[in-house]
Each structure stands twice: as structure tokens, then as C-alpha cells.
Amino acid sequence: xxxxxxxxxxxxxxxxxxxxxxxxxxxxxxxxxxxxxxxxxxxxxxxxxxxxxxxxxxxxxxxxxxxxxxxxxxxxxxxxxxxxxxxxxxxxxxxxxxxxxxxxxxxxxxxxxxxxxxxxxxxxxxxxxxxxxxxxxxxxxxxxxxxxxxxxxxxxxxxxxxxxxxxxxxxxxxxxxxxxxxxxxxxxxxxxxxxxxxxxxxxxxxxxxxxxxxxxxxxxxxxxxxxxxxxxxxxxxxxxxxxxxxxxxxxxxx
Length: 254
Hints:
Layout: H1 3-19, H2 33-45, H3 53-57, H4 61-82, H5 89-104, H6 120-144, H7 150-173, H8 184-191, H9 198-209, H10 214-231, H11 239-247
Helix pairs in contact: 1-4, 4-5, 4-6, 6-7, 6-8, 7-8, 10-11
């Protein structure tokens, strides 16, 4: 496997792993402009373009970078919240800029060079999966960095459910089942689902279990634990952090 592709795939796995860690260290915001620019340069350069992320994991390098940046910014914010300190203006600006980046992202700007030009099923599934990742990234950003309204969160959870449901419908219509989707979008969205949205997610997870991939059962148990915690009055966000901290459990949502 070419080094560039291997590096990108490892970056994906590390980035996804960090999104579910309950013990990430808090970080002081860099004070010097040069330090800040170097930090962002390192963030960008560690994820290369055109390395088959679309076909392997159903995500683009741009979305992956924004996922990683969301986690890192949340570590910075956590430092100031934990120490009851004012958040630096530059950090607030960085969070707002990332929010704009997620908001302005569009599937129409994404080219899929590694998808067979005439493979309608593959092209459609990958496109839907990328869109699901984008909406799940919105949820993740709102849960970790800048909150949104309950209505906005519910809409984003519904969007992820709709995209993932369309993927399964496509597989069925073409004689599926092929293989399961990457679980991160469904895991993130289901954990932040309202009580009224749970039934639809329960059906989706039951269907995912039919793929008989061990990690899916583990993730589904965590989602149910999050729902029970919410019912008991625990509204920590993201919902899975408190559950995993209590259980001292590490997961990889793929």
C-alpha cells in the first residue's frame, strides 16, 4: 500500500478514536501567532488529499480535518471551562471559523475520483455516506464545542438517519446486503437522539446487527447506556463521554 494512502487511513482511525476518548487532556490555547500558525499547518499536513478515504471510509479529507479540529478545539475550550477562565478571543474566533466551515461545506464541491464512473450503486452509497458524515460532524461539533438549539440538533439527527436509511434501501434494491456502513455517523446521531427519535434508531441498529460485525453490538450497547443516562437526568454532551468514563471503556466507532 502506498505510504500516502496508509498515512491517510491511519489518520482517519486516530481521529475517530479521539472522538470517543473520555480522558483527552485539556489544552492551553497557544499564545504566540507563530505557534498558532504552526499548529494549524501540522493539523492540515497530516491528512493528505486523494488517498481513497471516500471509497474506504465514506468521508473526505476536508471533513476528516474538521472532525479532528473539532476535537482539538474542544480540548482547548475544556481547559478554560474547567479552570473557570475566560475563553481567549482567538479561540472563540477559531471555533466560529470552524462552524462556518462546516456550515458552508457542500457535497456539490466534492469530486469522487476513486469511484468507478459508471458504478451507480457505489457512487450513490459513497455520496450518501459522505453526507451522513457531514451531518454527524455538525452534531459532534455542537455537542463538543458550540451548542445549537434542540430543534437544530433534532434536524441533524434526522438527516443522518435519512441518509443511512437510503443507503440500506439502495443495497436492498440492488440485491444487497454488501457490507455495513462505517458506524461513526449513526453512533454520534443516535447518542444525541431525542426520546421521540429513538424508535427509528432502534430499528436501524437492529438491522446493523444482522451484519454480524462484533463492534456494532458494542456500539449499540453504548448507545442504549447513553439513552438510559439521559432518562436518569444526565445531559452531559457528547452523551457517550460520561457513559464511557463511568465504565472505563474505550471504543472505536467504525
